[in-house]
């Protein structure tokens, strides 16, 4: 196991990639290995979307951008460690929303909400503040390109869309949600498109990012791969 004690230097690890690639699972595992803070920025965009749904800024799947922007000043997001899960839960204005932000309803609207410039500016500023002391693993779509262009290690994750849809389907059905595989696959494909075609901070691989295609890799194999990459950048 390689910790920052090997180098006495805390770095920023930026993980970007397509939806349902297992970014959070991977990022959480390496943060635990290193004793770093883990931040799931997708959860932040989901939390804003959830709040907008709850407060009438999204009706029948239609996102009213001006209404979302008007809500922004009243949205306060924070993460609090939950010892039961061994991970942080996300809170909005003091309410734990962790379980409520991963529904298909939120998934269907989150791309539209995350394409709003004012939403991105607010969340990017929060994310940069969280990484000020380094020692952080952050996953999202624009971490290596926009949030921390100076991150020491940038990883771009990808996997076959069918594999990703199956993973999300298994996750949701295990929680008892009534969803169809086709609906999930459509959601995965449309979010890929929306993420890549968004005008502000579209999803793209940073020039200095290393690619991890985990379609056929176990989590353990991904962690071995990570150890090599971590050694490579911290040995410099
Ligand atoms: O990682 P996720 O699927 O939970 O992310 C939810 C959505 O948030 C995703 O469709 C794109 C958006 N997102 C983003 O635009 N920028 C980020 N840094 C993280 C997520």
Any key phrases for this structure?
236 residues; alpha/beta; Rossmann fold; 5-stranded parallel sheet; 3-stranded antiparallel sheet; globular; binds 2'-deoxycytidine-5'-monophosphate
Describe the structure.
This protein is an alpha/beta fold. It has a single domain (12-229), classed as P-loop containing nucleotide triphosphate hydrolases (Rossmann fold), CATH 3.40.50.300. Helices cover 47% and strands 18% of the residues. It contains 9 helices and 10 strands. It has helices at 23-34, 41-54, 65-71, 104-114, 117-130, 143-147, 161-174, 181-197, 219-234, and strands at 12-17, 37-40, 58-59, 62-63, 77-82, 87-92, 95-96, 136-140, 153-158, 210-213. The chain has a 5-stranded parallel β-sheet with strand order 2-8-1-9-10. The radius of gyration is 17 Å and the shape is globular. Bound molecules: 2'-deoxycytidine-5'-monophosphate (DC). 2'-deoxycytidine-5'-monophosphate binds at residues 19, 41-42, 45-46, 110-111, 114, 140-142, 191, 195.
Characterize this entry briefly.
With 236 residues, the protein is of the alpha/beta class. The chain is built from nine helices and ten strands.
């Amino acid at each position: 196991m390689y910790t920052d004690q090997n180098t006495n230097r805390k770095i920023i690890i930026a993980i970007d990639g397509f939806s349902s690639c297992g970014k959070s699972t991977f990022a959480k595992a390496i943060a635990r290995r290193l004793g770093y803070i883990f931040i799931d920025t997708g959860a932040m965009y989901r939390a804003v979307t959830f709040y907008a749904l709850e407060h009438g800024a999204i009706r029948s799947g239609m996102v009213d951008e001006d209404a979302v922007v008007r809500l922004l000043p009243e949205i306060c997001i924070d993460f609090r460690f939950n010892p039961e899960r061994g991970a942080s839960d996300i809170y909005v204005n003091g309410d734990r929303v962790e379980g409520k932000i991963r529904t298909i309803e939120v998934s269907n609207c989150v791309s539209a909400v995350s394409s709003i410039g004012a939403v991105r500016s607010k969340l990017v500023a929060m994310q940069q503040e969280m990484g000020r002391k380094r020692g952080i693993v952050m996953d999202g779509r624009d971490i290596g390109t926009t949030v921390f262009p100076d991150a020491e290690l940038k990883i771009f994750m990808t996997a076959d869309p069918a594999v990703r849809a199956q993973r999300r389907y298994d996750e949701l059905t295990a929680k008892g949600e009534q969803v169809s595989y086709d609906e999930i696959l459509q959601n995965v494909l449309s979010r890929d498109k929306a993420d890549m075609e968004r005008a502000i901070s579209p999803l793209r691989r940073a020039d200095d990012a290393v690619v991890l295609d985990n379609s056929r890799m176990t989590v353990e194999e991904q962690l071995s791969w990570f150890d090599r990459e971590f050694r490579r950048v911290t040995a410099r």
